[in-house]
Amino acid sequence: MPTLQSDRASRAGREPLPVLDPATGEVFEEVPDQQPDELDAVVDRAHEAWRSWRTDPAARTSALLRAADAVETAGDGLASLLTREQGKPLSESYAEIARAAARLRYFAELDPGSQLITDGRPVHSEIRWRPIGPVAAIVPWNFPLQLASAKFAPALAAGNTMVLKPSPFTPLATRLLGSVISTALPKDVLTIVTGREPLGARLASHRRIRHVTFTGSAPTGRAVAEGAAASLARVTLELGGNDAAILLDDVDVERVADRLFWAAFRNCGQVCMAVKRVYAPARLHSQVVEALAHRAKTAVVGPGLAPDSELGPVNNAAQLARVERYTALALADGARPAAGGHRLDRPGYFFAPTILADVPPHSPVVTEEQFGPVLPVLPYTSLDEAVEAANGTGFGLGGSVWGTDLDHAAAVADRLECGTAWINHHAELSLAQPFAGTKESGLGIAGGPWGLYGNLRPFVVHRAEDA
Ligand code: NAD
After folding, report:
1. Looking at ligand 1, which atom is closest to the CA of residue 240?
2. Torsion angle, CA of 253/286/329/416, rounded to 10 degrees?
3. Is the pLDDT at 57 greater than 80, yes or no?
4. What are the chain's domains?
5. What digits encode the pLDDT tens for the residues 235-285?
6. Which of 161, 219, 229, 411 pairs as cysteine with 46 (C-beta 3.0–4.6 A)?
7. Which residue has its alpha carbon closest to ligand 1 atom 35?
8. What is the mean pLDDT of residues 43-67?
9. 215 lines ligand 1 (CB under 6 A)
10. Which of 33, 272, 316 to mutate to test the pocket of ligand 1 (most atoms within 8 A of CB)?
11. What is the tens place of the pLDDT at every residue in 74-99?
């Protein structure tokens, strides 16, 4: 018989999970706090659904194309819910939804094909690609729908089924997306589970899961990889970044300032591959600081549902506290706020868009991932010094180089130690490209055919031709 205390604890554990509106800081909805012991049944059903889902590629293609149409039809409801729980301007929510639909279409029509291997021997050797089984996906709160689709589109197209866990901060739009997509798919091909930890940890280490695909911070990524080691499931990790933008001596500051600003501040700076540090030639430093500060001061900050808002709130209280802490440490170390530098005096989790000058290079706002609306601008005197600083953190997600001589900019970009280097823009990805951080920014490859193969296993048939 359970004790009174354990009974109370288990009842408390099943209280729904509240969802807050970051523009007000108030609860407006709730979702089930599913318990880890519910996962056995969920994963078993995903495994059962896999038995037929894996067999018919043509049926999968049409189901996923229908799912893409369904996502677009549900766009208005999805966008307003996403903005309400995440905080981003409505236009950015619509962009996430468009991307999710485009990704479904892209992967629905991608064929892994089969490949012949020839090595001179009289053997016919062919690689065929096979699905691997139920996949677990765990995603963060900054791009809930876009990142969910980056997981389920390639996994389902490959013939796997999926159990996906959104962040407890943003479960609502993902649940709705799951039910919209499920109207086009057989039962249990895609299941969304919601709840507090240790739900994600138990999902990542579940014995019937064959691939764990995770997006989030590096410390959680390590824990996920350790958990997945129990069943030797494949692991894909898309982790944090601290992307540097290097401005070259011939950069046209006024021409690039808008693009550079939004590469840092879109989604309130909560983008893994946002520009998180700017390195400017010493002679241009104050001009760059002023140009960016002007944009920071004039950007319209407000609730994502307000039509004129360009920048919403930070998503949650813990993240806001992190942004405040990093900014305070930089200011204590002598940094100068050319714009912002403080929380806004209004309800919700609003922080003024902040441009920091005179930041010591060892300050955490430079060396760590601040993941918020704060941008340090650092001067450099030699290009080698700038490249070394750009490469000088544990991260290796992206980076960019800005200048008018494109060949020179490309040569500098070639020296960046990261997965994607942009020239005169930043944080733009094609669905067809590989997306893979190096160092502590990730493991495995997402995007394009590589993302599809990441959800398949090679099955090789050798046939002796001389028998
Ligand atoms: P997080 O690591 O705290 O959480 C990510 C997800 O993991 C959430 O769903 C969370 O509930 C879950 N989780 C927490 N503990 C877990 C555990 N022990 N086992 C399994 N799951 C667990 O990250 P966050 O704060 O939600 O997101 C911000 C981070 O995500 C930033 O570092 C950002 O750079 C990164 N990110 C990376 C990419 C990329 O593609 N590289 C994209 C977006 C965000």
Report:
1. 34
2. 40
3. yes
4. 6-239+441-461 (3.40.605.10), 243-423 (3.40.309.10)
5. 999 999 999 999 999 999 999 999 999 999 999 999 999 999 999 999 999
6. 161
7. 216
8. 98
9. yes
10. 272
11. 999 999 999 999 999 999 999 999 99
Which pLDDT score, from 0 to 100, does residue 1 have?
Answer: 30
* Residues with catalytic function: 238, 272
Give residue 121's pLDDT band: very low, low, confident or very high (50, 70, 90).
confident
Q: Is-contact 454 155, C-beta < 8 A?
A: no
Question: Does 142 sit in the ligand 1 pocket, CB within 6 Å?
Answer: yes
Average pLDDT over residues 401-424: 98
- Going by their DSSP bridges, the two strands 354-357 and 374-380 should be labelled as parallel
Contacts (Cβ under 8 Å, ≥6 apart) of 74: 176, 177, 180
Contact 342, 352 (CB under 8 A): yes
Between the alpha carbon of residue 56 and those of residues 50, 62, 130, 158, 188, the distances in Å are: 11, 10, 12, 10, 16
Residue 3 pLDDT level (bands cut at 50, 70, 90):
very low
User: Cα-flanking dihedrals φ and ψ of residue 185, to 5°?
Assistant: -120, 155
Picking from 171, 164, 151, the residue whose alpha carbon sits closest to that of residue 33 is 171
- Residue 306 in this model has a pLDDT that exceeds 80: yes
Ligand 1, atom 23, lies closest to the CA of 216
Tokens of residue 441, six digits:
């920014």
Instruction: Show Cβ contacts of residue 47 under 8 Å, excluding neighbours closer than 6 positions.
Output: 133, 134, 161, 208
Residue nearest to atom 11 of ligand 1 (CA): 167
Only one residue has tokens 């709705």, namely: 176
Ligand 1 in contact with 188 (CB < 6 A)? no
Q: What is the DSSP string of 400-461?
A: EEE-S-HHHHHHHHTT--SSEEEES--S---TTS-B---GGGEES-BSHHHHHHTTEEEEEE
CA of 271 to the centre of ligand 1 (A): 12
Structure-block tokens of residue 338: 């050319």
**Which numbered atom of ligand 1 lies nearest the CA of 140?**
26
What distance in angstroms lies between residue 448's CA and the mean position of ligand 1's atoms? Answer: 22
Q: Which residue intervals of 232-381 are DSSP H helices?
A: 253-265, 285-298, 317-332, 364-367
